[in-house]
Specification:
Nucleotidyltransferase, domain 5; five-stranded mixed β-sheet; alpha/beta; binds zinc ion; 13% strand; two-stranded parallel sheet; single chain
């Protein structure tokens, strides 16, 4: 079902589960954010400050409470990371990071078998990275301008080059710059979390040769100081999001709490 207003979208989702209530044991929600994951917070389960119209302060978990089953709530990218860790490109790998490069950039991390939370949750797309001196583009992030997402998301590529990324040929000057920016992001993530493996997915990563370019740039940036994390494509493809939700539901069931 399309994402429209919170009331309509969450209402339709809750209705769907209500009509199948006898078969619903737990619910896993992998949501765009930022979201409130702190179970002690009065706004737990809410989307907080998203620029998506109408969704700021939307109570997502609250829409499903009437079902009285355990609910797990996490970011879309933590969900995808958990799905890839359980069934895909991150199976048996810990720490494992999943990064999506699409309209926005986001990353989720599995550390000690669990999605990494914190004061809020990781926001890897908003890492500050140095803008290339030869790049005059000021950046597309409404909050930070030239953060990683502001420089290397599909929205940024379209704004910088005046064309959709999938229409830019493999030999276009966009790609070496894109690989450098993504490598700066991966190196920053590696410096903090030391993941053994990073899966890079999302629409922009479908560009031919981009993953290989990022691998070379990461090796060059790390300059032999520490080992580079293994960079791979996700294995679950378009299903990473929904399988992430399923993995979260399994976690909720194992924990057994009704939130
Ligand atoms: Zn930003």
């Amino acid at each position: 079902m399309p994402t429209t207003t919170p009331a309509e979208t969450l209402g339709r989702a809750a209705d769907f589960f209500r009509t199948h209530a006898e078969r619903v044991a737990a619910i896993g929600i992998a949501s765009f954010g930022p979201i409130d994951l702190d179970e002690r917070s009065p706004t737990f389960g809410w989307v907080t400050t998203t620029p998506k119209p109408g969704w700021a302060r939307a109570n997502v978990v609250g829409a499903f409470r009437a079902l009285s089953v355990p609910v797990a709530f996490d970011t879309d990218v933590n969900g995808a990371a958990l799905g890839e860790h359980r069934w895909g490109a991150g199976h048996g790998v810990d720490p494992f990071v999943y990064v999506t490069v699409g309209t926005g950039i986001g990353g989720g991390a599995i550390v000690n078998g669990r999605p990494l939370h914190g004061l809020v949750h990781p926001e890897m797309g908003h890492l500050a990275i140095p803008r290339d001196p030869a790049d005059p583009f000021a950046g597309a992030c409404p909050y930070h301008g030239d953060c990683l997402e502001g420089l290397a998301s599909a929205v940024a590529l379209r704004a910088r080059w005046g064309a959709a990324p999938q229409t830019l040929p493999a030999g276009h000057e966009a790609w070496p710059l894109q690989a450098r920016y993504l490598a700066l992001g991966v190196v920053a993530i590696a410096a903090v979390l030391s993941p053994r493996r990073v899966a890079l997915g999302g629409g922009v990563m479908r560009a031919a040769g981009l993953l290989e370019r990022v691998r070379h740039e990461v090796e060059a940036r790390l300059a032999g100081y520490v080992r580079a994390p293994e960079l791979v494509a996700p294995a679950l493809g378009e299903r990473a999001g929904v399988l992430g939700g399923l993995a979260l539901a399994q976690s909720a069931l194992a924990r057994g709490s009704v939130q």
